[in-house]
Amino acid sequence: MSTVLAEQDDLAEKRKRGVRLTAIVCGLVAAFFYFGFIAMTLIKGWK
Amino acid sequence: MAEQHSHAAEHADHDHKPHGWRRWVYATNHKDIGTMYLVFAGIMFFIGGAMAMVIRAELFKPGMQIVDPQFFNSMTTMHALMMIFGAVMPAWTGLANWMVPLQVGAPDMALPRLNNFSFWILPFAFTLLLSSLFVPGGAPAGGWTMYPPLVLQNGASFPMLIFSIHMMGVSSILGAINVVVTIMNLRAPGMGLLRMPLFVWTWLITAYLLIAVMPVLAGAVTMLLTDHFFGTTFFTAAGGGDPVMFQHIFWFFGHPEVYILILPAFGVVSEIIPTFSRKPLFGYEAMVYATASIAFLSFIVWAHHMFTVGMPLAAELFFMLSTMLIAIPTGVKVFNWTTTMYKGSITFEPPMLFALAFLFLFTIGGFSGLMLAIVPADYQYQDTYFVVAHFHYVLVPGAIFGIMGGVYYWLPKWVGRMYDMSLAKWHFWLSTIFVNVLFFPQHFLGLAGMPRRIPDYAVQFTDWNMVSSIGGFGFGLSQLLFPYLIWKCVKSGQPVTSNKVWEGAHGLEWELPSPAPYHSWTDPPSDAVVARGAFH
Asked: Is B259 among the residues known to form the active site?
């Protein structure tokens, strides 16, 4: 969090949790697509 | 007015802005990072443009004149990589960095240090990619699509290409996560999702596309890397792998990528046209749903890029029809932009000129896309200059004009000064005339059978190639006006006299002083301000 964001009253714990949660979900989606497509290609190769 | 300026000046004195190189290397301010993205994109645009000039100089007449075929192939490959990943995508991220927090009433991007990291990966990625021009065997020359087995013959540049693509991917994914997190969590109170400006909406959808498909590209090039260096055979037929599988994976990324490049332009145009028509945008919600529909459809049309590799008839029909379906939400957008202008009090400042050129010329690119979607016709068009003409109409007067329109629209808000309006109109008219001289004849060349990615051609293609090259040189030279105009504006432009800059503008960014203070919306805008700036 930048100083400006941390200072904003509205950005209290709830909002910070939202930021973390959204970032983690997005990261997991990205990881799913990365590993998912590699796994899919592997599985197709084994057939 | 003087009051506003003194307020802005006072603000600037107390903004605790870091100075010197630290301001840029350690930047966490969204405006600084946005500026760095835009400058970086500008540099890449001119390097990629110089490569295009080499291509057009070689193709000016038949026979081999200037470069050898290997270098020519490197130029086509590198031009695409530089323009897509180095110019257009970073330019959009730069505009998102500048505008998303201002438009949703947030004090900054939600993850400012991640934002810094996302940007600073890029100079390293592109230095690595460009340095491949100097290694034995030369730069990558197998096309930006990196199809195996051709790409595996690249020599020393191959791992450089793969590593730089990975870095660009990481940068894009992190940037996209930042945009999603900011929009979903840092909107000002009262700024509901269906009150957001269209630029924010289109970027939100673009960010979702990026998060879904950039990892697919990264996965594909990781598999290329292991095929080349670690003995796997994902895409090597001799080991039981399938090179066509790479094409499917690449285009599963590649088609949404086209919309990653163009959706933010839809957002910019949806901001500009209402402003200069002095009317609210017609069908705001339809525009949002149309954008989401286009994004969804972009996931189920990828194989139209590869009809000629062969696939079952049912698959051909599915991909042909799903591709044509995209014309419906796109048509909704074109209709709404046109209807917004109907009975409007229209003026033709440079952002509006670029938006109008976008509307006409992008539609031409859309129509040739429909032609390419027809399977039997595509068998004729595949790998000809018709395809080159099609995607350049979508990406140059589409994405690039969108970026330029956006810069002309928001530059006075960023720097607090107005640019030279008549020089900007010169830039517009020269760009618009030459872009058509450059790309329209390529339709004729393609229909006559000229293949793409060749350094030499049969003599019957000479005339239109000459015309196209003249258009290319003209377009390239006229772009030099753009950085000059921005530099002149920053140094000596007329100070702007109102927050709004443009009479018909609506949105939270226009509620801030001009130039926008270094720290903006440190106190969230009130409900009344949000309502005044709301998009509809």
From this structure: yes
Q: Is the CB of A41 less than 8 angstroms away from the CB of B173? A: no
Q: Tell me whether residues B212 and A29 touch, CB distance under 8 A.
A: yes
Q: Partners of B494 in the beta sheet? A: B418
Inter-chain CB proximity A45 and B173 less than 8 Å: no
**Does residue B61 carry a catalytic annotation?**
no
8 A C-beta contact, residue B292 and residue B208: no
B164 carries an active-site annotation: no
Are B372 and B378 in contact by the 8 Å Cβ rule? The answer is: yes
- The residue among B52, B60, B53 whose CA lies nearest residue B456 is B60
Among A1, A3, A4, A29, most B C-beta atoms within 10 A, so best to mutate, is A4
pLDDT band at B527 (very low <50, low <70, confident <90, very high): confident
The model's pLDDT over B23-37, given as tens digits with 9 standing for 90+, comes to 999 999 999 999 999
Burial class (CB in 10 A: 0-12, 13-18, 19+), B229: exposed
Interface of B with A in 20-49 (CB under 8 A): 28-29
The runs of H, that is alpha helices, within B144-197 are: 157-185
Q: Distances from the Cα of B279 to the Cαs of B67, B139, B499, in angstroms?
A: 52, 50, 19
Instruction: Give B381-384 contacts, CB < 8 A, sequence gap 24+.
Output: B381/B446, B381/B447, B382/B307, B382/B308, B383/B308, B383/B451, B383/B452, B383/B453, B384/B445, B384/B446, B384/B447, B384/B449, B384/B450, B384/B451, B384/B452
Contact flag A10-B176 (C-beta cutoff 8 Å): no
Question: pTM of the predicted model, to two decimals?
Answer: 0.94
